[in-house]
Amino acid sequence: MKKKLPFFRKFKYAIVKPSAYPEMVQEGVKRAILYLLLLALTLGVISATYHTVTSAISYNAFISNLKKDVPDFALENGELTVEGDEPIIYEENTVGETFIIDDTGTYTRESVDTLLTEYSTVVLVTKEYIITADGAEITEYRFSDFGDFYVDKEMLLSFLPYLTWLLVLVGIGIVFWFFVSKLIMGFLYALFGMIVASILKKKMSYGKLYSLGLYAITVPSILAIILSMIGFSLPWVMYVAIVIVYYVLALRSLSVVESNQAEDLIEE
Length: 268
Description:
Elements lengths: L6 H10 L4 H5 L3 H41 L3 E4 L2 E4 L5 E5 L4 E5 L7 H7 L5 E5 L3 E6 L2 E6 L7 E3 H7 L3 H38 L5 H11 L1 H12 L6 H17 L3 H10 L3
Parallel strand pairs: 4-5
Antiparallel strand pairs: 1-2, 1-8, 3-4, 5-6, 6-7
Helix pairs in contact: 3-6, 3-7, 3-8, 6-7, 6-9, 7-9, 8-9
Keywords: Membrane, Transmembrane, Transmembrane helix
Pfam families: DUF1189
Protein name: DUF1189 domain-containing protein
């Protein structure tokens, strides 16, 4: 019995050696799914580490600013009370944003339209509601819609550390979603693989094409992670295009004899 390829060798081959795909596919669908699970965990750990570090930096800066710059406040029975007699205005001119806390009535809903002539993004917190405006999109949230509850600055500061556990849960959820979504999308990728195989006149069953697709997502998944770290996203069309390229390279590596024999190898 031929020795199974270890994960990291498959990972390497999946990136730089598409001609090895037929050999990996011969290990069966279960091994391909196991590879996908390990890939999800590997990329998930890398992504989670990066986002945890960046989130920790942002979180610490947020806590520092909250303690230093935000006055004592209390939200009770749908109304906000802020210490001080003047509106509190934070401006970020480099990105065209302003954040205003005002329970005095100086700024109102109508003020947002005027502010949008100077800023691209406006957040206005008043005594009874919050308004967020991003260009032409304006959203209003009334405190009374959240029910009758009480929260103040000290309570908020004591609660925020628990958000780190939420980040852990989100990270686990992302890994799970990556794994499940790619399992499902693998069926679609296999259809693309069938089209490629037909054009190249190669014979490979749908099950084998499905396994091949699970290996082919390696490169676009890595690119998607890298782009997310620098604030961009990989378009789905580009993602699929890369998968199809790997289908082409893998299927072209099959000789006529191998493609005829491939129908019987994996199912055994």
